[in-house]
Amino acid sequence: MSNVPAIGTYTSADKNFTLKISSANSSNGVITGVYSANYSPIGAFSVEGNVGNYGWVFSKSQGKDGVAPFNLSFGGAQRPDQRPYNIVDNWNGAYLTDNTILVEGTRSFVNSDGVVEVGSLGTLRFSL
Fold first, then answer.
1. What's the pTM value of the predicted model, to 2 decimals?
2. What is the largest CA-CA distance in the chain?
3. Over the stretch 9-45, which tens digit does the pLDDT of each residue have?
4. Rounded Cα–Cα distance for residues 128 and 10 (Å)
5. 112, HSE (Cβ side, Cα atoms, 13 Å)
6. Residues near 66 by Cβ (< 8 Å), separated by ≥ 6?
7. Which residue, of 29, 92, 119, 124, has the fewest CB within 10 Å?
8. DSSP string spanning 42-95?
9. What are the residue ranges in the chain where pLDDT is below 50?
10. Rounded to a whole number, what is the distance in angstroms from the first to the last CA of the chain?
11. What residues pair up with 101 in beta bridges, in sequence order?
């Protein structure tokens, strides 16, 4: 199994978001760890578990299996048991050869009062 994406904590350039990769399963492309956002309509939040996916474009026949660049997506969702709100952050982009992640983020938020917020979190680089 490859160690790419590298295990560790990636922080966004604006310091508002982190992705802690605890494991990256090369057989199914699942990233396990913690996604955290420093701000949202509910304040800071974190989600732990399967927080992302990735897929390589290079193969063993090319002599490059398991190397960057490759697609990567991650994020987190939170909905408490009483369902006062649901918030979803999604980041989609690429893992680069310098072990950074370049992604575009979106957020959707809905609460039980009928408030709806949907928008972009911007394009950010995440670094170890």
1. 0.91
2. 55
3. 999 999 999 999 999 998 899 999 999 999 999 999 9
4. 4
5. 7
6. 2, 4, 26, 56, 58
7. 119
8. T-SEEEEEEEEEEE----GGGT-TT-SSEEEEEEEEE--TT-SEEEEEEEEEEE
9. 1
10. 21
11. 95, 126
